[in-house]
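Quick question, first post here. What does this chain look like in 3D?
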Amino acid sequence: MAQKCRDEAKKRLVGQDYLIDGIMTAFIAGGHVLLEGVPGLAKTLAVKTFAQITGLDFKRIQFTPDLLPADVTGTLIYDQIKGSFSVRKGPVFANVILADEVNRAPAKVQAAMLEAMEEKQVTIGEESYKLPEPFFVLATQNPIEQEGTYNLPEAELDRFLMKIDMTYPSARDEVEIVKTQGMAGEVKVNQVLSASDLKKFSEVASNVVCDDKIVEYIVHNGMMKDLSVLLEAPFTDKGSVVEVFTDLSVWAEVRRVIERINMNAAA
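> Answer (accepted):
Ran it through. Tokens below.
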């Protein structure tokens, strides 16, 4: 299954196997992903492609300086005929959310995603509404050096399991990209996964055992961030050692499952 996802993604994306692997890992682990890179590296196309490969409901939210929190989560609409309020749900009610250029909106708008990402629910008026399962946020951001961007608040960064830095393509990959003549997004991809398949992957990953001795060693030495670099686990900054280790262990378990699947497919 993992290899089929790569093969389908390659129809549109050139030289970005690491990106598809990272997105799949975070999705199976139940986390969210922050993609960072300069404009033009196909961040948006990669997210759309993943949604189509998995057949999940997809919504895109373009973050801008004038976006309001209600534009993300939804709001109450007054019906003059009935004399009552009704709920109009926002675009956050989907399985896969693309929060495009999330750091172009002020902090209060970015904060509208906090409850959704952590609790998988949103509050509109006095009622809370559960989001559909599975719920997965892929946010893109331009580097902070770009004008018109804002630093993401620490509370929001904490909601992301992984941060993937998208690098500039090699000269060979650039040649292949130019050959697409800007039509890569028009290439048809097939659905090779379903929500039930991804749920099975998550169940398998949860059964991978991390020995207590390893847990004790990592926690007592307090070397979480150094270990995440050693294991090439692209985590965002976390607020505590416990959070870092939890993300590290889940990431490692899912990577083990994907590697085992790849080994079986190669055999």
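The chain has twelve helices and nine strands.
Residues 13 and 42 are 8 Å apart (CA to CA).
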